[in-house]
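Supplementary notes for students who missed Thursday's class. We covered one full example, reproduced here. Read the sequence, then the structure, then the short commentary at the end.
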Amino acid sequence: MFTETGASAFFKYSMHQLFGQCYSLDDFIMRWQVDIIIGQLDKAIADTDRLKVIETFLISRLKKKAKDELIIIAVELIKQYVGNIKITLLAEKLRISQSQLERRFRRVVGASPKKFASIVRLRNVISIASNENNMTKLGLEVGYFDQAHFIKDFKSFTGLTPEKYFKKK
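Structure (token representation):
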């Protein structure tokens, strides 16, 4: 079990590693806090009451963080380039080292700048795709170097090949 300090350090530096994983609540908060929440949930009559218990707990844990203006700009640049910007170029534009950018970006966003750019690029693919599009041509249009890279990236996010995804859609 993590200590309070360990849990906050875990969230601060490793949030991106939680994506798609399943953890017990007492991995993140003290066991006595879990017991209190369970007691409140047991007393709740309706689902809305149970949701209120969880919401109240989560809001109490929320800490206001100072905005990192540099990372806000980085996110906007990645969106402006529709995910097609090299991280080295992004770091140059922001006048920061690539390692500092990646560290701060992970802390604020919860993913690396490269992963975030891939998500933005994939969202662009989905938004502009139509049933008539040739998937290879589409992948090249949005900045993938080849069909294999496009399919691999697409499948890593959706679990399906582009062709299967768009047929299902």
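Commentary. The chain has two domains: 4-61, 70-168. The chain is about 70% helix and 0% strand. If anything here is unclear, bring it to office hours.
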